[in-house]
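quick q for whoever's on today - can somebody do inverse folding on this one?? i tried earlier but teh output was garbage lol. tokens:
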């Protein structure tokens, strides 16, 4: 039979438990007394109440992080480019100043994104060869304002119904197709795909491109057309971007943009450099002599060169040998006949790449 404790023993036991509990109730108290709390022996394991507070980060399983911070930054830069392109396209198309500004880029469950939509034109589009679908959503008021501008109006919104007429649908198609074209251009440095609109809806609950709990990246924009302000958003599922997530890095995006800009401006640079004057020097030959022989040279002396009589001479452009030629006379002036062109360097090959129009103009000039 177990031994029955006396009242004094019970009170002593409760007092000891109470004192142990006060040491572990507050993490702040534990940190402040950390220097005083020492293990009784080096071999004794450190008790939990003697360790500092454990640092941890709250993880919400309903909102799992699929995209790394660097990938989200790259997506932000991509869609800042898209915003600039689309603003320029709409300004020229509507003949009114249009501003498109990126507001946020975040990863959320698809269900949460859909719940945030109201009174919108929801366009589902594919991104072949990537598998899956994405969403381009524009608030109804913004679309109606653009349609009014296209029909010659001031851009006012007087319609309350979300049902579009056939003419309004056709004009909406042109507005959305311009957005998808600029969207493809903005992504060219990361991935090549062909966005194509599949369906258009006005009721968000009818649009199910992925299961409700799947992670999507939600990109929110603010659109200003004249005096009207509204929202536009793009929703791209993680599963759609998963094959190219390795390419979503700022370094890759910057390097691809640099290559694209160099290739784009090379014909323009070549065209401008074509009008630049350069010094052309013909090197007849060379020889070696001592300083004494150089000092003794006088008018009438003959200097023998290393070049033979029928050997080609070097033609220098700047400080580089560009051609080989034979010297001669044309009329009353000395001349050279180009016999050989030296191979171009890599930099020269880039600058001598010309557009078809410039090559055609060169051929016409040679024919004349």
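ok took a stab at it. sequence:
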């Amino acid at each position: 039979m177990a031994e029955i404790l006396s009242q004094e023993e019970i009170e002593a036991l409760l007092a000891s438990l109470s004192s142990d509990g006060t040491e572990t109730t507050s993490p702040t108290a534990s940190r402040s007394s950390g220097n005083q709390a020492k293990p009784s022996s080096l071999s004794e394991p450190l008790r939990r109440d003697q360790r500092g507070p454990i640092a941890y980060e709250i993880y919400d399983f309903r909102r799992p992080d699929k995209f790394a911070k660097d990938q989200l930054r790259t997506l932000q830069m991509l869609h800042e480019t898209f915003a600039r392109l689309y603003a320029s396209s709409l300004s020229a198309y509507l003949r009114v100043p249009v501003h498109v500004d990126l507001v946020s880029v975040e990863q959320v469950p698809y269900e949460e994104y859909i719940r945030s939509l109201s009174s919108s034109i929801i366009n589902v589009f594919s991104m072949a060869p990537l598998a899956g679908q994405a969403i381009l959503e524009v608030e109804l008021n913004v679309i109606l304002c653009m349609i009014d501008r296209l029909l010659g109006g001031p851009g006012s919104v007087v319609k309350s119904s979300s049902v579009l007429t056939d003419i309004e649908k056709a004009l909406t198609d042109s507005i959305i197709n311009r957005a998808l074209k600029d969207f493809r251009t903005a992504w060219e440095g990361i991935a090549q795909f062909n966005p194509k609109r599949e369906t258009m809806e006005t009721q968000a609950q009818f649009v199910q491109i992925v299961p409700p709990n799947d992670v999507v990246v939600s990109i929110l924009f603010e659109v200003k057309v004249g005096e009207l302000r509204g929202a536009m958003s793009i929703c791209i599922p993680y599963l759609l971007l998963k094959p190219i997530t390795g390419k979503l890095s700022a370094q890759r995006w910057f390097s691809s943009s640099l290559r694209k800009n160099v290739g784009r401006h090379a014909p323009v640079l070549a065209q401008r450099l074509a009008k630049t004057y350069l010094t052309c020097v013909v090197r007849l030959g060379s020889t070696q002599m001592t300083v004494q022989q150089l000092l003794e040279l006088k008018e009438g002396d003959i200097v023998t060169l290393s070049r033979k009589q029928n050997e080609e001479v070097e033609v220098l452009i700047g400080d580089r040998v560009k051609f080989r030629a034979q010297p001669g006379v044309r009329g009353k002036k000395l001349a050279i006949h180009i016999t050989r062109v030296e191979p171009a360097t890599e930099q020269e090959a880039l600058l001598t790449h010309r557009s078809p129009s410039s090559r055609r103009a060169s051929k016409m000039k040679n024919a004349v």
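fwiw Residues 277-286+307-357 form one domain. also The chain has a mean pLDDT of 79. so keep that in mind when u check it
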